[in-house]
Amino acid sequence: MTPGTVALVVPEEIGIPSWDLYELSIPATVFGKPQPDLADPWYELWLCGTAHRSSGAGPGFSLRTTHGLADLVRADTVIVASVPDVCVDADAPVPPELTEALRAAHDAGARMVSLCTGAFALAEAGLLDGRRATAHWMHTAQLAARYPAVRVDDSVLYTDDGNVLTSAGMSAGLDLCLHLVRRDLGAHVANQLARRMVVPAHRPGGQAQFIDLSVPAADTQGLTPVLDWARANLDRPITVEDLARRAAMSPRTFYRRLQETTGTTPLQWLLNERLARAQTLLESTGLSVEKVAELSGLGTANNLRHHFLKQVGVSPSDYRKAFPSAAPREPAAAL
């Protein structure tokens, strides 16, 4: 499986403000550093400058780019990590040469991705019309007001509409990039990459953008050992009461603290973990769908298929076909 080329748009002519480096560095790290032990070939990253020269005309940092906007049309994936602040705060237009290049790339079949304020560029190009999209919650009101044809959702980490994806700001951009790796190369590769980056392996796009941070960042609530235990025992029936008992909390307190910490409910957290386990088993083993359902704790093959179609968008059988390197299937497997 070849993940292809990723073209990352670099706004050269204005210089890059220090606060925009974070969003730029996320796709550069995920897609630009080869991981031959995880997948070979890895992605090929192109830094595509909007002026096709070394940046630095304005205040901020400069990057030396090797490609220009004309190269977007040849990329498999195009990522716009941000647009100049004036395009958000002062209603300045997104540079027309950028929007034209984005339209051409989309028409050529590229997968279009925005992080944070990059959604303004996709929206200006008309690529978000009629679609659900998001951006950093501080900018979603402006996005919705300026582009009424876009169905703006300020409550999610990222959206996936097939060949057009958008994310909220800051760390949500990393969630979306890992989601792309998961789509392209599978759950195992994405999980291993997340482990190397010391970040959660998978935060679903529907998780809330902002969580009550009155909860201490350190795990002073004893949730980590409980969640680790749950991950190690997904093949067993697990209830909220079981988790609360292990955390020495009432079910109501456990529910509240997990939601405060992760932005999701205990049952949804369990379902997400079970589906991630099922993806890994489908990618790396030849176990039947029935056995995958059993080992991931989803019970029956029908239950696995139902949740897989709803959350992943394809059936377990079709998902497995994308990973021909998986172990040979069991002779009696009925997929």
TrEMBL record:
Output the Pfam families linked to this UniProt entry.
Answer: DJ-1_PfpI, HTH_18
Q: Identify a single GO molecular function assigned to this protein.
A: DNA-binding transcription factor activity
Gene3D superfamilies named among the record's database cross-references: 3.40.50.880, Homeodomain-like
Transmembrane stretches in the record are: none
Q: Which keywords appear in this protein's UniProt record, sorted alphabetically?
A: DNA-binding, Transcription, Transcription regulation
The source's domain of life comes to Bacteria
Q: For the HTH araC/xylS-type domain, which residue ranges apply? A: 224-322
Q: Which InterPro entries match?
A: Class_I_gatase-like, DJ-1/PfpI, Homeodomain-like_sf, HTH_AraC, HTH_AraC-typ_CS, INH-QAR
Q: Which PANTHER family is this protein grouped with?
A: ARAC-FAMILY TRANSCRIPTIONAL REGULATOR, HTH-TYPE TRANSCRIPTIONAL REGULATOR RV1931C
The protein's name in its UniProt record? Transcriptional regulator GlxA family with amidase domain
Q: Which organism is it from?
A: Streptomonospora nanhaiensis
Q: What is the lineage of its organism?
A: Bacteria, Bacillati, Actinomycetota, Actinomycetes, Streptosporangiales
